[in-house]
Fold this sequence. Notes:
Layout: E1 40-47, H1 53-63, H2 69-77, H3 96-101, E2 108-114, E3 117-123, H4 131-138, E4 143-149, H5 156-167, E5 172-178, H6 187-203, E6 208-213, H7 237-243, E7 256-264, E8 270-275, E9 280-282, E10 286-289, E11 295-303, E12 306-308, E13 310-312, E14 316-321, E15 332-334, E16 341-352, E17 365-367, E18 372-385, E19 390-393, E20 402-415, E21 426-430, E22 437-447, E23 458-460, H8 462-467, H9 477-496, E24 501-503, H10 507-537
Parallel strand pairs: 1-3, 1-4, 4-5, 5-6, 23-24
Antiparallel strand pairs: 2-3, 7-8, 7-15, 8-14, 9-13, 10-11, 10-15, 11-12, 11-14, 16-20, 16-22, 17-18, 17-21, 18-19, 18-20, 21-22
Amino acid sequence: MSALVKVRDGSGQPSRPHRRQAGTGTLLTLPRPGREAASRLHVLTCGSVDDGKSTLIGRMLWDAGALHADQRQALAKWPQTPAGTPDFSRLLDGLAAEREQGITIDVAWRYFDTQGRRLVIIDSPGHEQYTRNMATGASHADVAILLVDARSGVKEQTRRHAAILDLMGVGRVVLAVNKMDLVDWSQSRFRDIERDFLALAARLRFHDAAAIPLSAVLGDNVALPSAAMPWYCGPVLLAHLQQIPASRLPSAGAFRFPVQMVLRDGQDFRGLAGTVTSGEIAAGDEVADAVSGCVARVRRIVTMDGDLERAQAGQAVVLQLDRDIDVSRGAVLATPDAPARVVRSLDARLVWLSDAPFAPERGYLLRTATDLVPVSAAAISAHVDLERLEEKPADACAANDVALARIDLGRGTALDLFSEHRETGSFMLIDPITGASVAGGVVTAARTPDVAPQAGTFRLTRELLARGIGADLHDGRGSEEELRRRADEVAILMRGAGIAVEIEERWHGTDRDLTTIWLTLCAILSFGLIAAIVLGIL
């Protein structure tokens, strides 16, 4: 028996795992909620509607002793399932509409501890209408439990969810073949489904795929081995999750720090606030802004609890640099030896989330971790065939389609390849009129700012903006930041009106060049004055 959990009935003897009733008198050796675990694992449950995702999570919470007394009492008062067990799905369906319809609509998060590990369970909806919610949950997952009904096997929605998992970089997947009790615990039925799943996984980029037969309602192979399926010799679900390593190591990867805002105390303090998305940084290290190329050294790492010597991925901090560099919200700081890419054009894989189909003439915005960039042009090149998982040429895109696209931006922004950095290699496409998210995607290829603009593109230059909407601004760093902000707003409005627009690339360079020329002239004039004085004395 797995050391993960022991369940005994009132007589002190082990209970039959596949026919036991969920009642009182259960003794669990798992740690109680609230104890900090040594590591975290983000687990997504997904699959087609009615495959039993909420029931499976509820059973996991019950068997792990992760429920409070009032939750157990409330569960005992609700109507039981036809199998005579509590309706565990009610523990997850928090919305009134979910309880009325019997389906999951929104993403639900649940936390519970096992020995040495904290599991963060992300319950996603299975209905095709709420695919966008499933994609949101997948963006946070280390591993996915992909459920199928043993009676129906792998369906189109199962394949769609598998393709989205691949798109979002979830490399570890567990196929939970649920409701085995409804197919008389058939080994041949399980093997057929397992064969289909492994063929599906081989065509995607999953590097760890396994199939487990179980019954979420009765608890078979969830926390304890099933006596009804002696032919299965693999680990039960909770034991399998226990041994999976976390995908994201805190210090793994090159340093990335998207700047969320600039903080000032009204005197000499100027700090850059944000969250370290990958890698780590220490006081005294050099950082560089991807777009301008300016380099500075970290003087302090400031938090609400005091200064830190080092910050790593996942920590929200304020970086104070040893000199002011011209960066604001949307900039991405990196180390000079591993800089982020400045991208003007990119290839992407995306899942279309909007009910309104893709319209190439409509203006879209691209939202990165902290930046919002006008899209000057976008085109769909192919769809992913969910049946064969092959790319087929296409130029249109509708709700729930997984597609390949090329996107040209109105100005350069810092992006990475998704295969190298998940947080700075993913994006959302935004409708500029409604502000709704229309698609989520990942960067598969990136091109530099040397991309020629398309014919008919309107170019916003600094000189044009300074004479118009920036005429009331005066010289200074704050004025430059405000002028850039206004430039973005103008570009967003023009793109919303269907006008292709780009913003002058050499914005930062113009300021530096003028400053350098002015200082050089001052030096020449100063040297000439000193020379004249010296010559006069002589």
